[in-house]
Write a structure and sequence with these properties.
Elements: H1 2-36, E1 42-46, E2 51-58, H2 61-75, E3 81-88, H3 89-97
Parallel strand pairs: 2-3
Antiparallel strand pairs: 1-2
């Protein structure tokens, strides 16, 4: 009986460690992909929802799209999803100034 409890404990511990490693690996892969694309944005992985959050500002709508595509490609088949919360500075400035 004690041996089976010990085995279950070891297996559960290994699963937790593997899950943490996968999360860190996913977040690291996204950061590397964004760095390679010369996009400096914040990346945060939510363990509970398995969502990678992209936040911060980029200069153009094209950069926002590139960031999401790079993050999605880096995630691959890990099961995580990308939530793109990036703000486009040129659009924000146009909104503040109002229509011409």
């Amino acid at each position: 009986m004690r041996v089976s409890v010990w085995i279950v404990s070891v297996v559960a511990g290994a699963a937790i460690v593997a899950g943490c490693d996968r999360r860190l690996e996913t977040e690291d892969n996204v950061r590397k992909a964004l760095d390679q694309a010369n996009l400096r944005v914040d990346v945060d992985m939510d363990d509970d929802t398995n969502i990678v959050h992209l936040s911060g500002t980029v200069e153009t709508l094209a950069d926002r799209t590139r960031a999401e595509e790079a993050a999605s490609a880096a995630i691959g088949t890990s099961g995580a999803q990308v939530l793109n919360e990036l703000t486009v500075t040129t659009l924000a400035a146009e909104t503040e100034n109002g229509p011409d």
